[in-house]
User: What shape does this take?
Amino acid sequence: MSEDGARRTLPRRDWLLLPLVAVVTAALFLIIVEGGSRLVWPESKDEVCAYNPLRPKPNCVSRDKAAEGPWVEARFNECGYRGTGSCGAVNAGTARLAVLGSSTSWGYLVPFDDVWSMQAAREITAKCGRPIDVQSLGGFGDLSLIAARTPEALALHPQLVALVVAPFDLFKLPDGGFNPAHALIPRPDPPTVHPGLMEWAKNFMTDSRAVEIAQHYIFGNPDTYVATYLHYGDRAAFLRPPMSEAWQERLDVLDEAVGYITARLAPTGTPLLLVYAPPLVQADLLADVKPAPGVDPEAIDRAIAQIAKRHGALFADGGDGFRSVRNASNYFYRAEGHLNSAGQTLLGRTAANVILADAPSGFCPGPAQ
Amino acid sequence: MNAPSFQFLGFALAGAVLFNLSAALAWRRLVLLALNLAFFATFMSGFVGVLPFAGFLLTGYVAVLAQRKYPSRGLFLLFLVITLLEFFWLKRYSFIPSPLTLHFLYVTIGLSYVFFRVLHLVIEARSNNVTAAVSPLSYINYTLHFPALISGPIQLFPDYHRMESEERLPLDIFVVGEAAWRVAIGFFKVVILSVALIKVQQSCIAALTPDLPFATKTLYGALIGAIYPLFLYANFSGYTDFVIGIARLYRFELPENFNNPFVSENFIAFWSRWHITLSNWLKTYVYTPVLLTCMRRVTARWAEPYFAVLAYFVTFFLVGAWHGQTSMFLFFGVLQGGGVAMNKLYQIVMAQRLSRSGYRKLGERPLYRALSRGLTFTWFAFTLLWFWSSWTALGGFIRILGGAALVAAWALVFLTSSLVLAGLVWSQSAAARHPTLGSRYVRTAQVTVMTLLVLISVLIVGGPAPDIVYKNF
Assistant: This one.
């Protein structure tokens, strides 16, 4: 029993007590860390304005916050769009940009003034002297749902329609394939499923603020993040050409969606601007990290550029902006995944350059200053 | 491979399992040799780059063998000079002409610490009880002992040899627990504490501008000066804790290098608590010979205490100067030697003026003790300016702070450290009265928290393990 004797033995109870002390301490520590993280980095993603079928409520105001970012107020007008103002007719002399897409398109968790479309609008106005009204129709839906809202966009009589896509949007294919006609039919809520232990643990990790904050710092190291991400298999396969079967299928759906939208815009002569928003891993590869053999960070950009070209759409490659920056992770909510204000600014600049270079006459009638 | 790091820990744990598979001496020596060479190889960039280091080790071994066979003072002095010159040459000391230095990349990892081990053997070579035990295998294992290779501690050969071959220290659950405690605390000090401290100091340096208000400049100046010794302690003692814990799994007890140094009440006592193995080595091989030589040459009794002042100066000048090859480190040595010598002189004068008992009584007064602690810390922090800074940077600090803020900053360091260290001593004695605070249950909880913090920190930072300052020496 003694620790001083030549033959020391640990009391039997300690074989149980010591591991128990370690487990209880670890549990208490994690609770304190989680509580502290929630206190220091609050987050609110109630999305009070979102409702079935995944589009914001009209005349709704939500106040959201990513743990990694500031509080952001999102105002939706009488049409449920995040816009410069009313979705009604614009004044003579004002051009209108209608934006389709999911969360990145309307600047989820980013102040509206910092959203890419507003940044681009300001730049174009500065160059062409024409005010631009922005109406973002975006929600959280898949490509079928996004494309299904083209008539709504057209009803705004825009001079330009933009479609924003990111690999997140492509990753989950629409149920039953691309079918915009079916997309707008409200669906019943899925039945509540009680998670098993593993699912609960997974949810706990996903929802943990401490994990999110840890990820924020870990993902700030581009080498670590890229090396980790490249192990994700299918999620990372868009970085390894030739495209896998799954990614080819996703690109085919995008091809269908772009074809569907351009076909509906064609009778009015409204051009489509396809905007590609790269994810953090791709931005890291473009800005900071030398790609490993077999990794091509621009493969997906080229594939999407071909789709745009095939359908006569303009193409703004969001990856362009990251080629000239360092620390690409500063342009993202790293753990959350979306572009932050700085990232949206880069995207807006790229889009403005494309619009100014290949501008439809309705957008920039005079010579650029 | 850096220590401490999880990579090193994995390597050391796997090695410990292998090492303890058999109690046979040959097995343990061979496993240790393999581990020492494997660890050393992680710093190699090619075969040629290891030759100078190998040559240095070979010279040391030849010196031991030669003196064993032909013990003579002349041979000893010859090998002493060769070993010293070889060390200065490999470390590219500034007085070695550049054309004579080697102009290719070669390994010098831990060379300063290997130098002390080799020099110890060269000096002791004439004593049969040491050299008789120095077989080639023991020599390599002793000089390249992987837990202590990078930055010590400096273990003397008889101590090493006893644990390597004669006395097989026990390895039970308590020892493993103690080792885990040292490893965890070492990791915590290096990965969390030292990194946090140096970041605060760097932020203060970055924020220090001439247009700041006087009070802010004083505060930043005080923080810049006072944080570095804390950082250095966390960094170096953390490394030492870690390697002591690792070595214990190999049934070796490495000597302690730190013993609560900031509670020292004078600079001489400080150096018996800070980098203990280095100062002990130099006390043995420099202080005592210098003192004895002086006393042999001058027999006047009144002069004896002053010989100690001289011997202290020489010894601690060498402690400082050993750290580097530039004028900054020479001056650092002057300040170390000067500090210890002045301290000894003060003790002599005070003992003469107050009598021994009067001086002892003065030293027992709480206020005197607290201010002495503060002064010791402040002096050490001040001398370290020549350790971590440069002449240009020091000039910059003086220009930005100005004379008044500079004096105020050091006065603030002195007063604050006196107060804080008095609190530390009080809390340590209070903790000592509650043995439950040191129980294995409390320690288990502490190890758990420190391990989790280190894991989180390593995951978040994602980079290589922080470097040990003394790795460069």
